Amino acid sequence: MDVLDLARLQFAATGSLHFLFVMVTLGLAPLVAIMHTRWVRSGDPEHERMTRFWGEVYVINYALGIVTGLVMEFQFGLSWAGLSHYAGDVFGAPLAMETLVAFFLESTFLGLWIFGWGRLPRRLHLACIWLVTLTAYASAFFVMVANSFLQNPAGALLRNGRMELVDAAALFTNKALVFAFPHVIGVGLFAGGMVVVGASAYRLRRRDGEAAFFTASLRTGVGTAFAGLWVAVAFGYPQFAGVAEGKFGSDRGVATTALAIMMEAGNLLSLVLLALLVTRSRLPRWRWSHPLLIAMTPVPFALAVCGWLAREVGRQPWMIWERLSVADAMSPGLTSGMVTASLVGFVAVLGMLAVADYALIVRVVRRGPRDLPLGATVDEQRSPALSH
Amino acid sequence: MELIWYAVFALLLVGYFALEGFDLGVGMLLPLIGGDQRGRDRLVAAMAPFVLANEVWLVAVAGTLFGVYPMLEGEVLFGLYPLVVAMLLAWVVRDAGLWFRRRADGARWRSFWDAMITVGSLGLAFGWGVALYAAATGFAASLLHPAGLLLGVVVTLVLAWHGWTFLGWRAPEAAGITRSGRALALSGAAAALPAAAVVGGALPYLLEHSAPSPTLSVLSVMVLPFAPVMVLAQVWVWRTFRPGKGPVRTLSFF
Predict the structure, then answer these.
(1) Of A50, A60, B222, B226, which residue is 20 to 30 A from A106 by alpha carbon distance?
(2) Quick check: B149 contacting A, CB < 8 Å?
(3) Looking at the partner chain, which of B51, B104, B251 has a beta carbon nearest the beta carbon of A363?
(4) Is residue A164, in this structure, part of any structural domain at all?
């Protein structure tokens, strides 16, 4: 592999890993916020347990979203300095907004939500998780604005060898963005819903208590996954109107295959999810269905990676469609040795953390909604370590 | 407008050192003053509510660098390639240590992640000294220049002192010392001083390399209206988690 392939592999590996965790964040954040709202309204301890259990899954998953995201943000400057040099005046703006307006607030409010348990007034505490959800979606929006500019460089003109922003409105109403953003949101809800479905099916299958809790969770998960998938499919097809000609030609192997797999599976799954929605009140009792539901849990993740491969590999050899090639976008002077070292470092560390994170989520599901650390008070924990 | 965005960039960078500086300091001090597992738990619990609100200042620095100084973004990060990769990995294991340490039972699990917090905090603090020296010398000198390594040691020590002061303010009984809010402000200023000097010295250079005004206008319209919200959110964190608000019955999540 030459240095360009290595740099692309590094971005693809860290980017795919990042998105696997981000899509769960996007799907679970609104679910946890809704559970929390029900708890505040009803005061029902069962709603509190629901919020804390799925909230625990959500925040453990969030940890990997953060650490992979850090690597993504800095990689632009490390490996793709040519991109900021050529189009940074346009491409940098949405990324700056993502960090300043969205992620800065998201991280601050998440800290308040996690550590403000039992400290903040109930309604302000609830407001925190809704603000986290809102800013997470704003983050996704700005990242998609930046990505869509690469797909279709709208709103910018070439002047003195560099791209300059001339029409901000065109940047935010890019035809590569308007259907892709809701598509990504739908995918997130589909994935978050399927995580809830798979985990609940696992618990119901094992019959080790908490049947009522996981019966309710399963129904919520099926509803969310159904809604998410239908949004994803509905905003999938209109995207073709914005696809540049020749992107998915017969000579473009990986991108076209990935696209075909995603579309075929998406269509088939829409029918499967419809069937699940219709039978959702019976599913908790149908034990035979639980292994199938568990087996379906990884599907949204595999399809999301296919979708990104289609979008990103389909853009090759362009970094910015028909403007800047990936070879020209690479940092001049980057060597195979440098990228190999960082690639090994990132993949090894982030890969191990991802496995550990997955194992920790499984552990939470296995233990079920008891002794939950999120929002735990001194009285309910066996080995107390006071927070100050 | 270039000046406004320079001020935003400088404030974010200086704020990062003053705030995240004490988190890194506490991370380094865990094995030194933490003692047993219970002691380390108390130190981590003291900084835990602040970490998410503090580390995000650096994410904002990087975003601003990309949006406001796109011509420099690649130059700076690529110029420090091995250092940036090492610092990112240090940051990643520090964060993983915080998130993971209490997620499973067992003394070995927790001491492993506590060690990762310390290693990551040390690596990040030392790396900052080297990076600031490189920035001050225009990325010309070797990353292993003795003066850079020396600044790495200095920054590490200053942040450790800042972390210790923070513990004396927030959790005196766990730290074994008592420090006032004013002392914390002073150590925060000291932690931010090297970065402030570098970014201050770079003023003419940064103004010259700002993004063109159409880009800055869009950024101003989109970002500046949210500045009060960002300030309020940060103030809310400090109001909520300041010491001495009566007994708290929640356990620390980190």
Answers:
(1) A50
(2) no
(3) B104
(4) no
Burial label for A258, CB within 10 Å (0-12, 13-18, 19+), is buried
Residue A166 lies in a domain: no
* ipTM surpassing 0.90: yes
* pLDDT tens per residue, range A247-304: 776 567 888 889 999 999 998 999 999 999 999 999 999 999 999 999 999 999 999 9
Distance CA A13, CA A346 (A): 9
Within a domain: A290: yes
| Banded pLDDT at A381 (limits 50, 70, 90) | low
What is the helix, strand, coil percentage profile of chain A, to 5? Answer: 75, 5, 20
Which of B71, B75, B85 is opposite residue A345, by nearest beta carbon? B85
- Strands A318-320, A156-159: pairing is unpaired
In a domain, A129, yes or no: yes
CA A313/CA A316 separation, integer angstroms = 5
The answer to whether A387 touches B248, Cβ cutoff 8 Å, is yes
- Name the nearest CA neighbour of A157 among A286, A323, A18, A279: A323
SS3 A285: coil
Per the structure, the count of domains in chain A is 1
Give chain B's end-to-end CA distance (angstroms, integer): 41
B125 by Cβ neighbours in 10 Å (0-12 / 13-18 / 19+) ranks as buried
Query: Residue A211 and residue A204: Cα distance in Å, rounded?
Result: 6
Interface check for B171 against chain A (CB to CB < 8 A): the answer is: yes
3-state secondary structure A108-147: HHHHHHHHCCCCCCHHHHHHHHHHHHHHHHHHHHHHHHHH
**Span A146-180, pLDDT tens digits:** 999 999 999 999 998 899 999 999 999 999 999 99
Residue B93 makes CB contacts below 8 A (sequence gap 6+) with: A349, B116, B119, B120
> Structure tokens of A258?
């990935």
Please answer yes or no on whether B250 and A67 come within 8 Å at the CB atom.
no
Nearest CA to A247 among A143, A184, A176, A341? A176
3 state DSSP class of B37: helix
